[in-house]
Amino acid sequence: MFKLVIVDLIGILTANENEYSLLKKILNFKGTAQSLKANLGDYYNKLILGEISESIFWNTILKKIKTKKKLQTIKKEFFKSFKPIFNVKLLNEARQNFKFALCSNFYYPWYISIKKENKIEFDYESISSKIKMKKENKEMYMNAMLNFKLKPQECLVVSDEISDLNLAKEIGMKAMLIPGKSKEYKEADYFYEKFDDFLKILI
User: Fold this and answer.
1) Going by fewer Cβ within 10 Å, which terminus of the chain is more open, N or C?
2) What pLDDT is recorded for position 16?
3) Global confidence as pTM
């Protein structure tokens, strides 16, 4: 039985969308989210690794992408897009019985703002721009596990990204799929349509 639940920020804060699909809508970008990623991906990766400042990232968007919107409007709409797709009260109740860790490729100051706005709390937080490491590095998950002095089989990774679940299985952790870009993952130990449904069984 698992004792630690490891979640990803994007998977529980946006409905089947990532940063690029959100920016595509906000910027009224004519191409695909994938082509937007091709334009901005290098800069976003540097941002979430703490290698460039937020102002450089936003200014790069204005230079590379044609948009009539002002920067303040873009930023406001972007942050408004991050809302819990689960009941925060259920998470807090589940934390009475299990530990919850957040491991995410994200910009730390953004996370702090979102956390305060939505009153979300975790027992452990690991954000890429703060630790200078992305979750593709096994150490992010391993450090969460070691923080609670647990074994891999006592940890469950919850994500809508197959790459996250593959990494979890490599380490020896359990994997749970919540719907996203990929609807199937045969190696998953658990599958729930909604994060709330999972939280309810932990209470």
Assistant:
1) N
2) 62
3) 0.91
CB 142 within 8 A of CB 171: yes
CB 113 within 8 A of CB 83: no
CATH number of residue 10's parent domain = 3.40.50.1000
CA gap 133, 106 in Å, rounded = 10
Token duo for residue 48: 């979430």
CA atoms within 13 A on the CB side of 133: 12
Six token digits for residue 35: 């082509």
**Closest to 60 (Cα-Cα) out of 77, 39, 45:** 39
- Nearest-angstrom CA–CA distance, 44 and 59: 12
The count of domains in the chain is: 2
User: Which structural domain range is residue 28 located in?
Assistant: 19-80
Is residue 71 predicted with pLDDT exceeding 70? yes
